[in-house]
């Protein structure tokens, strides 16, 4: 059986999820040069928001076709509110402070969000079963689930609307201007605070989309799910060229595919059987990151100064 | 630009470091308390993962010990002594377990400890208890090296005389599982996966060797990391290997995700694991995908033991969290063994509690070694390595959304 098409599909799916989360890192970095390490936790709260809608608000036995859009709205509202709240109350007071101050705030915020969910969300001290979209489809030799289709479609829609928004809309162009030079942009009449809030909100919403896809695909969520996913998405953003939204998506896909292929095939290479398999996937993914950064320190798509939003 | 780039690198290094460190932070102990009714109060420590990963079974250990302590106090098992249970959360982290062990041994009223859940955590705790000459009884550690030394396959040598367990070893469990897979389930091609931890890797290795010895084929092996969520690549490998059974050495946190993704990926073969995944959480998390999966667990099913009936009723009526099914009864018996050893120490000292805590601890170790009583999980006594002499094992299968015993036997 030729497993390559299936493994590529596995990698692209994982990569789309990384990419969606990576958008949040890269947009915020592009505009305020802040690595928002609480972004993984914003992703996590998005999943809990979606779960809350499903479990506490919707009636039992509701069809998933109705539930999924409402869960997306619920998760989106929670994630966007937390992202914007974090910007307003944690980061904005520190604007202009040395770079390390907001960074440490981000780490603190990340821990705080985890602990709040763990302590106050009912049953969150362990994994919570999330409703899945488990119906499977065979396309050639590739098996995919409904949740995978949701993820792919959502990723494509999100990315193309974002690209359109940044290029064509007035606010999008204001964003590019702020990214290039915040002071001059302000002098030209752009409300940079508003632009920053929008960047956080878009990042939060994309994280919520990824979180919903995560829940539907893996069938469970927990308060620590944001840590590793956040770290991987940050890696994807750096790999693609931090600050560049296309880079974030590309970086995510490259990282996902690299991880999956490394896990699938490296232990089949003669002499490499001890260095392959699932447990080495992360090692190979980070090795790839190091190699890319050695050759292209600005990441795959670089940081095109003129178009950095 | 240079500044920004180095900033990215600096921040990533720092943040990765900082976030990793937070995984080792300690939290306040949430101790179970009981009122002291005059006389001497002695403390028994219990250490298990009480939050996060593995906490369902960990809480079962904590409350199993709690019930044993409450029973002993109520029945005045040791006249003039009130026992107090102090619970420590190790979060399944060896380093946290070690600092908990230090805290327990530092308590001048502590006479012994029950726990931990994980073999890997036990490794880091054994030395601490040995130095303090304090008894430690695990209700659930199954790695053979803990009692029989790292060369247990060739030359058995007990590393610590203060360490005991009421659970049987993976040597017996892995072989028992391999035997059931080959002869009972008639599976011939197995894919073996483990989580690289002391417990999981040890169990998978023993299963692997025994399955091949019986005449079966191991069509593939892989290792996962604890905390992994996406097993798509593994599922594809299992699918193309043509395996008719997946054996997993590890805990339910990963195995419940693996079985779900396996079946979603169109691989309709059962997953077979050890006692680390024998928990109701496994079924809750994996849902319908867990149907038909199997797990071995030490001892006989708790609800078939007549002596455990009162224990289960108490556990349920108190509304304790967690799952008593896997180790609750073993934790009860481990705690009772410590309490009975204290009684023997007091009896040997003319009915008075020895005032020197070190003398008391040392006497308790000797008396635990001599334990011989009917516990709620069966006979409680220990061999020269500190292993239980009760070598019964049971295979459970998920049937209609619940673990059901399918075969009980004594390992040879």
TrEMBL record, chain A:
<feature type="transmembrane region" description="Helical">
    <location>
        <begin position="279"/>
        <end position="295"/>
    </location>
</feature>
<dbReference type="GO" id="GO:0015808">
    <property type="term" value="P:L-alanine transport"/>
</dbReference>
<dbReference type="GO" id="GO:0042941">
    <property type="term" value="P:D-alanine transmembrane transport"/>
</dbReference>
<dbReference type="Pfam" id="PF02653">
    <property type="entry name" value="BPD_transp_2"/>
</dbReference>
<keyword id="KW-0029">Amino-acid transport</keyword>
<feature type="transmembrane region" description="Helical">
    <location>
        <begin position="64"/>
        <end position="84"/>
    </location>
</feature>
<feature type="transmembrane region" description="Helical">
    <location>
        <begin position="236"/>
        <end position="258"/>
    </location>
</feature>
<dbReference type="GO" id="GO:1903806">
    <property type="term" value="P:L-isoleucine import across plasma membrane"/>
</dbReference>
<feature type="transmembrane region" description="Helical">
    <location>
        <begin position="42"/>
        <end position="58"/>
    </location>
</feature>
<dbReference type="GO" id="GO:0005304">
    <property type="term" value="F:L-valine transmembrane transporter activity"/>
</dbReference>
<protein>
    <submittedName>
        <fullName>ABC transporter permease</fullName>
    </submittedName>
</protein>
<dbReference type="GO" id="GO:0015188">
    <property type="term" value="F:L-isoleucine transmembrane transporter activity"/>
</dbReference>
<keyword id="KW-1133">Transmembrane helix</keyword>
<dbReference type="GO" id="GO:0005886">
    <property type="term" value="C:plasma membrane"/>
</dbReference>
<feature type="transmembrane region" description="Helical">
    <location>
        <begin position="195"/>
        <end position="216"/>
    </location>
</feature>
<keyword id="KW-0472">Membrane</keyword>
<keyword id="KW-1003">Cell membrane</keyword>
<keyword id="KW-0813">Transport</keyword>
<dbReference type="InterPro" id="IPR052157">
    <property type="entry name" value="BCAA_transport_permease"/>
</dbReference>
<dbReference type="GO" id="GO:0015192">
    <property type="term" value="F:L-phenylalanine transmembrane transporter activity"/>
</dbReference>
<feature type="transmembrane region" description="Helical">
    <location>
        <begin position="149"/>
        <end position="166"/>
    </location>
</feature>
<keyword id="KW-0997">Cell inner membrane</keyword>
TrEMBL record, chain B:
<feature type="domain" description="Leucine-binding protein">
    <location>
        <begin position="41"/>
        <end position="401"/>
    </location>
</feature>
<comment type="similarity">
    <text>Belongs to the leucine-binding protein family.</text>
</comment>
<feature type="signal peptide">
    <location>
        <begin position="1"/>
        <end position="17"/>
    </location>
</feature>
<protein>
    <submittedName>
        <fullName>Leu/Ile/Val-binding protein</fullName>
    </submittedName>
</protein>
<keyword id="KW-0732">Signal</keyword>
<dbReference type="InterPro" id="IPR028082">
    <property type="entry name" value="Peripla_BP_I"/>
</dbReference>
<dbReference type="InterPro" id="IPR028081">
    <property type="entry name" value="Leu-bd"/>
</dbReference>
<dbReference type="Pfam" id="PF13458">
    <property type="entry name" value="Peripla_BP_6"/>
</dbReference>
<feature type="region of interest" description="Disordered">
    <location>
        <begin position="24"/>
        <end position="49"/>
    </location>
</feature>
């Amino acid at each position: 059986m030729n497993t390559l098409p299936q493994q590529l599909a596995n990698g692209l799916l994982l990569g789309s999820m990384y990419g969606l989360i990576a958008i949040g890192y890269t947009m915020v970095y592009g505009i305020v040069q802040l690595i928002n390490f609480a972004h993984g936790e914003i992703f996590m709260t998005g999943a809990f928001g979606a779960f809350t809608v499903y479990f506490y608000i919707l009636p039992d036995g509701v069809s998933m076709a109705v539930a999924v859009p409402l869960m997306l709205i619920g998760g989106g509202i929670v994630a966007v509110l937390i992202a914007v709240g974090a910007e307003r109350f944690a980061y904005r007071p520190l604007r202009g402070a040395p770079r390390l101050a907001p960074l440490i705030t981000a780490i603190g915020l990340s821990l705080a969000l985890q602990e709040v969910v763990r302590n106050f969300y009912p049953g969150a001290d362990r994994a919570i079963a999330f409703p899945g979209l488990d119906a499977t489809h065979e396309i050639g030799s590739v098996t995919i689930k409904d949740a995978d289709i949701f993820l792919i479609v959502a990723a494509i829609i999100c990315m193309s609307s974002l690209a359109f928004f940044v290029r064509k809309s007035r606010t999008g162009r204001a964003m590019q201007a702020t990214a290039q030079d915040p002071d001059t942009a302000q002098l030209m009449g752009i409300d940079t605070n508003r632009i920053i809030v929008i960047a956080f909100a878009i990042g939060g919403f994309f994280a919520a989309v990824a979180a919903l896809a995560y829940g539907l695909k893996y069938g469970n969520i927990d308060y620590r799910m944001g840590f590793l996913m956040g770290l991987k998405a940050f890696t994807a953003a750096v790999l693609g060229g931090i600050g560049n939204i296309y880079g974030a998506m590309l970086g995510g896909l490259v990282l996902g595919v690299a991880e999956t292929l490394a896990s699938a095939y490296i232990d089949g290479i003669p002499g490499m059987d001890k260095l392959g398999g699932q447990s080495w996937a992360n090692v190979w993914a980070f090795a790839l990151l190091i190699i890319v950064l050695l050759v292209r320190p600005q990441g795959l798509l670089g940081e095109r100064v003129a178009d950095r939003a | 630009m240079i500044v920004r780039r180095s900033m990215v690198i600096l921040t990533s290094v720092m943040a990765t470091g900082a976030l990793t460190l937070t995984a080792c932070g300690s939290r306040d102990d949430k101790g179970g308390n009981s009122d002291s009714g005059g006389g001497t109060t002695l403390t028994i420590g219990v250490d298990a993962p009480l939050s996060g990963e593995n906490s369902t079974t960990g809480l079962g250990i904590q409350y199993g010990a709690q019930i044993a302590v409450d029973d002993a106090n109520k029945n005045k098992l040791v006249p003039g002594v009130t026992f107090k249970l102090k619970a420590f959360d190790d979060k399944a982290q060896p380093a946290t377990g070690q600092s908990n062990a230090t805290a327990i041994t530092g308590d001048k009223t502590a006479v012994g400890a029950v726990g931990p859940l994980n073999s890997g955590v036990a490794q880091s705790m054994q030395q601490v208890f040995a130095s303090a000459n304090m008894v430690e009884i695990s209700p659930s550690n199954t790695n053979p090296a803990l009692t029989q030394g790292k060369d247990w396959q060739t030359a058995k040598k007990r590393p610590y005389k203060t360490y005991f367990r009421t659970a049987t070893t993976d040597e017996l469990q892995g072989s028992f599982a391999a035997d059931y897979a080959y002869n009972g389930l008639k599976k011939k091609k197995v894919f073996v996966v483990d989580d690289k931890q002391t417990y999981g890797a040890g169990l998978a290795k023993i299963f692997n060797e025994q399955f091949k010895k019986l005449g079966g084929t191991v069509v593939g092996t892989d290792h996962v990391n604890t905390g992994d969520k996406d097993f798509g690549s593994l599922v594809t490998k299992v699918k193309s290997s043509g395996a008719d059974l997946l054996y997993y050495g590890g805990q339910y946190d990963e195995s419940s995700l693996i079985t779900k993704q396996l079946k979603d990926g169109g691989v309709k073969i059962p997953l077979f694991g050890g006692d680390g995944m024998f928990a109701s959480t496994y079924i809750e998390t994996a849902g319908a995908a867990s149907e038909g999966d199997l797990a071995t667990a030490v001892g006989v099913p708790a609800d078939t033991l007549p002596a455990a009936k009162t224990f289960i009723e108490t556990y349920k009526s108190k509304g304790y969290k967690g799952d008593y099914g896997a180790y609750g009864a073993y934790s009860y018996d481990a705690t009772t063994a410590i309490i009975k050893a204290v009684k023997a120490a007091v009896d040997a000292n003319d009915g008075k509690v020895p005032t020197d805590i070190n003398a008391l601890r040392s006497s308790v170790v000797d008396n635990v070694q001599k334990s011989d009583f009917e516990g709620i999980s069966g006979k409680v006594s220990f061999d020269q390595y500190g292993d239980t002499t009760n070598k019964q094992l049971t295979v459970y299968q998920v049937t209609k959304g619940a673990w059901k015993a399918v075969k009980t036997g004594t390992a040879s």
